[in-house]
Amino acid sequence: MGYILTIAVLGGGIGGLATSYYLCKNPQVTKVIVLESSSRFGGWLWSTRRSDGAVFEHGPRGIRPAGAVGRFLL
């Protein structure tokens, strides 16, 4: 008899969503649960849609500040 393999992924950012996607493709995994602490998925990635229909894609920080300020930023 087979077994049920449920996996919890902590965080709904791009890393957590990609991990969940690939876990779902594994035939041994029967259930994937994504746990996110905020009200939306995507982490630092998000989109803004203006009233004229233009969509702006925003992403994670590409440039870190130098020195002590940027040392612990991911």
UniProtKB/TrEMBL annotation:
Q: What Pfam families does the entry give? A: NAD_binding_8
Q: Which GO terms describe its cellular component?
A: mitochondrial inner membrane
Molecular function (GO) terms for this protein are:
oxygen-dependent protoporphyrinogen oxidase activity
Query: What is the protein name for this chain?
Result: Amine oxidase domain-containing protein
Q: What PANTHER family does the database record attribute to this sequence? A: PROTOPORPHYRINOGEN OXIDASE (PTHR42923)
User: Which biological process terms from the Gene Ontology are attached to this UniProt entry?
Assistant: heme biosynthetic process
Gene3D superfamilies reported for this sequence: FAD/NAD(P)-binding domain
